[in-house]
Amino acid sequence: MDGKRNTILFKLFGSSISYMRRCLFSVLSVGPVPNHLAFILDGNRRYAKKWNLGEGMGYRAGFLSLMSLIKYCYELGVKYVSIYAFSIDNFRRRPEEVQCVMDLMLEKIEGLLKEESLVNQYGVRVYFIGNLKLLHEPVRLAAERAMKATSNNNNSILLICVAYTSTDEIVHAAQESCEDKWATTQSSANIKDSQDGEEKDTDDVIKLSDIESHMYMRVAPDPDILVRTSGETRLSNFLLWQTSNCLLYSPKALWPEIGLRHLVWGVLNFQRAHPYLERGRKQP
Amino acid sequence: MLELDFVRLVMFLRWLESAILDLGDEMHKFYARICSTGDLGLRLLWHIIHLFVSIWYFVVGLMNTLESFLISSGLFKRYRDLDISKVKYLAVVIDSEEALQTLNVLQLLRWLAAIGLRNVCLYDKEGVLKISQEALKLWLKSERMSNETTGGPLLDPKNISLEVISFSDGKHAVTKAANVLLKKHYLNGNTEKPNLTESDMAEALGKIGHGGAEPDLMLIYGPARCHLGFPAWRIRYTEMVHMGPLKSMKFGALMKAIHRYTMVHQNYGT
């Protein structure tokens, strides 16, 4: 009887918190709401050390924060959310730690595919962005399955950057552009001229639009806010190309400590800077 | 008789129809008024929240001004013993409108030279600084020479090496480098499919004159903390600090930003 009453009280409390959050979001929505939010999930290991948690427990705590933050973003009306889950640089960590993260990723990707998961509840389409060939085979296959399974969802988009760095993305886009142009100009006069060894001073064959159409992140518009937790002020090779008009926000909290107040503060700062950033976007 | 009743019935029904339509109109207007009042309430709350945020930033600004003044007066020992060698290459991003204030930019360069920085890269999106770069270099050179002759203690007479870039040195440079790679690796008659690496791209960028060093620290002078399109290839691990508008720049704030950088530890992903 007591247990049942406690459950009812707990549910009422949860509902009232959720109601207050929705009220807060409706006030925030009076101003411009960011269309695309990007997060660098920094501070999981420091969190585990701070609270004397076991190996890998920092990442699990970080995952819980990620789920609540994604939920808040979609409630607010943010359509695109990107997260920097694993950098190509992170492969240089100790093999046991890399394996731990890969195992966690596999577990969580398979969780995404379940009926009652967040992505199905909110109709989220998932993309895995990066050089997926560098991932361990089971993780890569699970990622491809998840992308296929959510391809019909169209409410919001979640971009999970794994085995990603901006410089790798730029080189990959350049390579794809070169291969495209090579295929289309193989039989043209350009090749004959090059083979003749002439310095051909013509218009560049590859244009900026070609490079941008081969970027991994072409499936989303440029981010409006890039959040890096634990107070670090660098981007660590994340979305360097796409953040020309993006507000950079670095709250001091470690990733597992991030909460609604940080999101609200970031959005308020975005709304203050919006006229300036929007002017920058409109300029060529 | 029957016909008269029928006419009356039709008139009554028509009257009823117009009365219902009028009532519908009134209800719609009432509902719209409630909604707009509700919207008005939300708007008011939104403005109140932003008013509090502005007050907060005003107070923080006052505290920062006081702190900058104390730092400039040499009160804090840690700012006097700054290890400037850690900042090998400094980038300064300035909002293009603010970059038109060339005297402010010159003052900033004087401060950077006074602190001991030797390699500085100035960036603004629209290329305003590229137009004034010759004037800036000339001014700095003439000041250096006049200090050497008068033996002024204020400025270290060593030269500051200045690089000035704009938005076209970013994405457009990468496009040009891709064309260089296309000519070198694909259109050279080679049948094997090449696998381009980051060092190939770096080499191509260097070949076309866009292979500048990666800055350790970036100071952003403008309304918002945004790198405004600084060449992406060069800012992988650059610490980015927002300094506020150029017109309210302070020497103490500059010292504090550089000191903070010297305390940072990077793992580079490992």
TrEMBL record, chain A:
It is an enzyme of class 2 (transferase). SUPFAM superfamilies: Undecaprenyl diphosphate synthase. The gene is LOC105162744. Gene3D superfamilies: Decaprenyl diphosphate synthase-like (3.40.1180.10). The keyword Transferase applies. The keyword Transferase applies. Keywords: Transferase. Belongs to the UPP synthase family. This is Alkyl transferase. Its EC number is 2.5.1.-.
TrEMBL record, chain B:
Pathway: Protein modification; protein glycosylation. Keywords: Endoplasmic reticulum, Magnesium, Membrane, Transferase, Transmembrane, Transmembrane helix. Its cofactor is Mg(2+). Its main location: endoplasmic reticulum. GO terms for molecular function: ditrans,polycis-polyprenyl diphosphate synthase [(2E,6E)-farnesyl diphosphate specific] activity. InterPro entries: Nus1/NgBR (IPR038887), UPP_synth-like_sf (IPR036424). GO terms for cellular component: dehydrodolichyl diphosphate synthase complex; endoplasmic reticulum membrane. SUPFAM superfamilies: Undecaprenyl diphosphate synthase. The keyword Transcription regulation does not apply. It is found in: Endoplasmic reticulum membrane. It catalyses: n isopentenyl diphosphate + (2E,6E)-farnesyl diphosphate = a di-trans,poly-cis-polyprenyl diphosphate + n diphosphate. The chain crosses the membrane at residues 55-76. It is an enzyme of class 2 (transferase). Its EC number is 2.5.1.87. Belongs to the UPP synthase family. PANTHER family: DEHYDRODOLICHYL DIPHOSPHATE SYNTHASE COMPLEX SUBUNIT NUS1. This is ditrans,polycis-polyprenyl diphosphate synthase [(2E,6E)-farnesyldiphosphate specific]. It comes from Sesamum indicum. The gene is LOC105169621.
